[in-house]
Please model this.
Amino acid sequence: MAADAPGLDFAFSEADYRPAAPPPEVVARYGIGLVGCGGIARGAHLPAYRRAGYRVTACCDVVEASARKAAADFGIPFWTSELDALLSRPDVDLVDLAVPAAERRPLVEAIARAGKPILSQKPFALSMDDARAMVEACARAGVPLMINQQARWAPAHRALRRVLDLGVLGHVYSVLHVLRSWQDEPGSWYVRMPDFNIVDHGIHFIDLSRFFTGLSPRRVKALTTRMPGQLAVTPMIYTIALEYPEGSEVMTTLHFNNIVRAAETHGSTWYADGTEGSAVLAGDLLSVARRDRPGEKRTLRLRGRWFPDAFGGSMGEMLTALAEGREPATSGWDNLASIRIAYAAVESAATGGAVDLG
Ligand SMILES: NC(=O)c1ccc[n+]([C@@H]2O[C@H](COP(=O)([O-])OP(=O)(O)OC[C@H]3O[C@@H](n4cnc5c(N)ncnc54)[C@H](O)[C@@H]3O)[C@@H](O)[C@H]2O)c1
Model:
């Protein structure tokens, strides 16, 4: 632990964990073209952008009615069902890509050819080969690419990260996530998607493990199981253990039961344990305790929510990175590391062995 690390009375305010919007001149400079006007775009992207004052200048969906509805509901001046019509517009400075992952690669390649920066929804790709090909296509075209791992901008996750950065816990040797939910939804696309729980939904928590530890693992071990009678084509329960390079003295365990019938027991909790103390993040409550203050626990009630606040944060990072001419935090290159962990977990669960990432 750093000698000047604070104790339990560490300074903490909302500004420490709620990402500030980019300056007005940055917001004014970039017109956003939305491609894919489905559930997440209308339910989270557009409400967050409206709140932040971002300029969405055009939207596109292969289903004309979806593009028209998004434009009408959110006051977007231009809508189309043709990607080229959106890409040729001078008022579209970047593309916010919110189509299903299976549709992603030809669109990323076309947008890169048109020279427009891309903020792509997760999961970025459904294979390592596709992920690398898209990252390389953008690099060849000189087009900035960011993956919308917006959980990193969720206020609660940033608050925990802030406590870790301050050194309040000392050396953190264990990070544990326990998530209980239910997505065995009849007729949904996710029950039909192979390995949905790990590569689609779970990618958030895999990516957060990198955000919290600042590390990528050298070895991945996963166990999965099915609930008798489940609809999903692959298991909806996983435990993933991540082992880091020698000397790191930390491990991460990610447990996600996404087929819990009793909704009353649903919830998400992160635990971080360090040599000086522990933090527990449960919903919007962040509790911190220290070994030098036995019997005490400081609990902070956090403001703001993942949906939709985090979506304003990730787009804010994209706009700021463009304005500053730097790579965004969750760039395509960065995301390859998270996707690699996800597919290593799938392989480990299938083979029963640990997967070495070198
Ligand atoms: N970040 C999150 O927490 C989060 C949450 C939900 C979904 N997602 C991701 O967002 C993406 C979209 O999910 P969704 O729930 O909005 O799906 P959706 O099916 O509701 O919407 C997708 C939209 O894309 C359109 N589309 C498909 N192909 C297209 C193409 N070639 N050109 C233009 N439009 C096209 C569809 O017509 C549809 O309107 C997926 O990758 C999903 O995994 C992320």
In short: The first strand starts at residue 31 and ends at 35. Residues 31 and 90 are 9 Å apart (CA to CA). The chain has a mean pLDDT of 97. The longest helix spans residues 332-351.
